[in-house]
Structures are given as C-alpha cells and as structure tokens.
Automatic annotation (TrEMBL):
Catalyzes the condensation of 2 ATP molecules into cyclic di-AMP (c-di-AMP), a second messenger used to regulate differing processes in different bacteria. This is Diadenylate cyclase. Probably a homodimer. GO terms for molecular function: adenylate cyclase activity; ATP binding; diadenylate cyclase activity. It comes from Tenacibaculum pelagium. The chain crosses the membrane at residues 6-27, 34-51, 63-79. The gene is dacA.
C-alpha cells in the first residue's frame, strides 16, 4: 500500500492548523443553533471523502465527490440568510478595531439563533388549561414540516398569547387540528398530523395525543398539548411524554430541547 500521503510538510501542518481554527470559529458562531448539525454532517462526509481519495477508493470517493458538489448548492440554499448577514458584516466591519469585529460576530450569532418565545407559548397553554380548551402546538426544529403544512391553512403570524388562544377557542374555525410554529411564527393551523400506531400509548389518550406522538416519532419537532377533558398540559418529544413537576421545569426542558 502506498503511504506517501502520510509525509507531511510544513505547509501541510499550517494548512491543517488554519482549517482547524476556521472550523473552531464556525462552531463558536453556530453553537446552540440548529445549523450546527448540518455543518457537522457535511464535515463528516468531507472527511470520509478525503480518506477514500487518499486510499484510492475510486468508486466511493467519486460518489462522495458528486454528493458534496450537490451539497454545496444545498448549503447555499439552507444558509442563504446567514451567508447574506456574514457578507454584510464583512463589508461593513472596521477590522482595525478588534472590539468592533467581535461585536459583529456576536450580533451575527444572535441573529442566526432565532429563539422561540417559550414563555409566551407556555402562558397561552396555562390560560387554555384553566378553561380546558383543547390545543395542539407543534414547534419545528431542524426537520422541515412543509409536507404537513400543506394539509392545513397557512398563516404568517408572530407568536402571541392572544393569537394562540383565539386559534383554539372552541368556536373558532381554526381550532381543529394542530398549529405549527417555526422561528417564532405561526405558519399554519388546522394541520393534519400522522397518528401513531404504537400499542404502548394508554387508552385514556385520544387522537390529539396520538397525533403529537406520531409527528415527534417521524420528525425532531416537539409538541405541547392541552387536554380538553382534564386541562393537563403535556409535553411530547421523540415520541414520548416528557415528565415535569413544575411550570418552571417544563420551561427549562423545552428551552433545552429547542436549542439542542
């Protein structure tokens, strides 16, 4: 086996160090956002591709090469907003001022990490719980839910307590089905969700709970439910009920899961 590729020169070492530094700052920039999972996946594919090239595995390296070439286009599409903000930052930053550049980096990171207003959502659920108003909220994470959104009525409304309560008001034409939230916006109501066929779900839970379990089994979305019979607020993630003791604990669990 030819192992000539193991002989490193100074430029090879410098190249590796610079790439490591670049990846480190990209990681710091994207840490805590859903984008980091995509970047890690692409980095792993690239690493495997380089290894197959070094080992002269022509067929596999060729397939991975084509995959990566198409992945660049997909990457641009997925990160178009972040790329635009980054280029804007580069064009407007005074690099002679280190503090100014670091402030731009922090601003960009906060812009990328689009936070869901968990407090407002939980306030709405608590209010509906007191009146035993049935509700089903689906919060999108990294998996796009457009394949479900098409089954309902599209919206583009900022998340507020009043809007959530008005959607699920019993006389509202929008209260049936699920409401989907993306980037702190309600993007659809009356959405039909896939129902779980699991036999482990207790019989006391109805279609609303089965639908919440079904969508969290098939995607990484999380669901909040308000029971129409008991007023109980349920939190479902990864196809399972997440137990909590206090509203504060529920807030922390939801906050952790949405930034994971």
């Amino acid at each position: 086996m030819n192992l000539d590729f193991i002989n490193f020169t100074f430029l090879d070492v410098l190249d590796i160090i610079l790439v490591a530094v670049l990846l480190y700052y990209i990681y710091k920039l994207l840490k805590g956002t859903v984008a980091i999972n995509i970047v890690i996946g692409i980095a792993l594919i690239f690493l495997i591709w380089k290894i197959t090239q070094a080992l002269h595995m022509e067929m596999l390296s060729g397939i991975l090469g084509y995959l990566l070439s198409g992945g660049v286009i997909a990457l641009i599409i997925v990160f178009q907003q972040e790329i635009r903000k980054f280029l804007l930052m580069i064009g407007t930053t005074n690099f002679s001022s280190k503090r100014g550049f670091l402030n731009q980096i922090k601003f960009l990171q906060s812009e990328i990490n689009s936070e869901i207003d968990i407090e407002t959502i939980l306030k709405a659920c608590t209010s509906m719980s007191k009146t035993r108003t049935g509700a089903l909220l689906v919060i999108e994470k990294t998996n796009n839910l457009d394949f479900l959104v098409g089954s309902g009525d599209k919206m583009n409304a900022l998340v507020t307590e009043a809007i959530i309560e008005s959607i699920f008001y019993k006389n509202s034409p929008l209260h049936d089905g699920a409401t989907v939230i993306r980037d702190n916006y309600i993007i659809a109501t009356r959405v039909v969700l896939p129902v779980s066929n699991s036999t482990k779900i207790p019989a006391r839970f109805g279609l609303r709970h089965r639908a919440a379990i079904g969508v969290t089994e098939k995607t990484d979305a999380v669901c909040l439910l308000v029971s129409e019979e008991t007023g109980e607020i349920s939190y479902i993630n990864n196809g399972e009920f997440v137990l909590y003791k206090t509203p504060e604990e529920l807030f922390k669990k939801l906050q952790k899961d949405l930034t994971a």
